[in-house]
Structures are given as structure tokens and as C-alpha cells.
Amino acid sequence: MAKLVSTFYAKADAEPFRDPVDWQSLGLFDYPQVIKKPMDLGLVKQRINEGKYKTIHDAADDVRLIWKNCMTYNADGSDFYNLAQTMAKKFEEKFEKLCAQNDVGGYGAGGVIEEPTIDDKRSFAKCLYKISKEELGKVITDLEVKCPKALIKNSAEDEVEINVDNISPVAFKEVVEYVNSCGAGSSASSGGGGRKKKSAKRART
User: Fold this and answer.
1) How far is it, in rounded angstroms, from Cα 205 to Cα 189?
2) Any residues with CB less than 8 A from the CB of 198 and at least 6 apart, and which?
3) Buried-state track 152-191, b at ≥16 Cβ within 10 A, e below 16
4) Can you give the three-state secondary structure of the chain, one letter per residue?
5) pLDDT tens digits, residue range 111-160?
6) Global pTM value
């Protein structure tokens, strides 16, 4: 894991993610209010070297937090947003290979997670109708970091479609838990699809 993080740290495109965001010098005075848990690649490297992570999944979660913070603070479609999205996708590809090489589970720890059933997927799709636009935005941001292949963007209509069938079982489990915590339901899983527009959302199975 140390090698993987060092590889990303060394990338030319990783410059904005190597050190903590100097929000004061940049005049980003709302940054502390928007980003509650700042993270950067330098800190992840330090924690790995100091043995602060119990598993590689714990380290991976902090790396994902870096991309997520960037996409949360910066506008969708901005240079920083797109860069973080690209880095997130590359990281997941490399991390998946690392897990396979070391014979450990993929995204998230905790052993094998069963594939969601069709009913789980339909339930999740229905729950997307019940959450607020802000909550749906968080679901989409999480998926952009953890499972970008599950999102289909339609720039012409300014909307994002969630292809639930493409969500990995672990990522699906996490977004379902979040949706349920919003009070949208208690038996959601994966499947169908959800779509987010500036002022509307819909789901399909």
C-alpha cells in the first residue's frame, strides 16, 4: 500500500493533493465549513510509515477521502473536480489489483459481501425518490469516488444516471446504509438506476 500511495504522490497531476489545502492563503474561507475532515496524500504516507492503519482498507479510505473532499468543494465539471474524479478512478483500478495480488477483499474490509438481489436493487431505486436533492448529491459523490463506473453523465441535460447494476457489492452496501440513515427505507440494496438533475431526480429498475 505504501508503494501505491507513493506512486500517486509522485504523479505530476497529484500536486494539489500532496499537502493540506492552504485555504487561508487561497482565500477559501468557507473551506473548513464545507470540508469537515481534510486529508492529503502526504498525511496518508506519514500514517502508513508510522503504522497508524490497521488494514490497507483503512489507508484506502483516507485516500478516497482526498478525492471526495475535492469533488465536494469544487463545482462539478471544474478542472479540480475532473482531476479528482480521474485520480479516483485510477486509484480504484490500482487498488483492486493490489487486493487481488495480496488475496484480500476489494473495496472495504470485512470479508465477502453477497451480490444484491433484484429486489434489493428495486428497493434501492425506489428509495432514491424519497431522499432530498442534497442527500442524492452525496450518494452520487460517494459513487464517483468508490465506484465511478456506476455513473452515466449526460452533460447535455445536466444530469447523472446511477446504473445500480454496475455498483460493486461493497460500495452498494455503503450507499444503501446511507440512504436508509436518511429515513428513505430499511430494505434497500442495489439495482435499477437513479438520475439526478439540478432540480429533479428519478429512478428506474
Assistant:
1) 12
2) 158, 159
3) ebeeeeebbbbbbebbbbbbbbbbbebbbebebbeebbbb
4) CHHHHHHHHHCHHHHHHCCCCCHHHHCCCCHHHHCCCCCCHHHHHHHHHCCCCCCHHHHHHHHHHHHHHHHHHCCCCCHHHHHHHHHHHHHHHHHHHHHHHCCCCCCCCCCCCCCCCHHHHHHHHHHCCCCCHHHHHHHHHHHHHHCHHHEEEECCCCEEEEEHHHCCHHHHHHHHHHHHHCCCCCCCCCCCEEEEECCCEEEEC
5) 456 778 888 888 888 888 888 888 888 888 888 777 777 877 766 556 77
6) 0.60
Among residues 192, 174, 171, 197, which one has the least CA distance to residue 127?
192
| Cα–Cα distance, 204 to 195 (Å, whole number) | 8
Question: How far is C-alpha 31 from the geometric centre of its chain's CA atoms?
Answer: 19
pLDDT at 200: 32
Which stretches of the chain drop beneath a pLDDT of 50? Answer: 106-111, 186-205
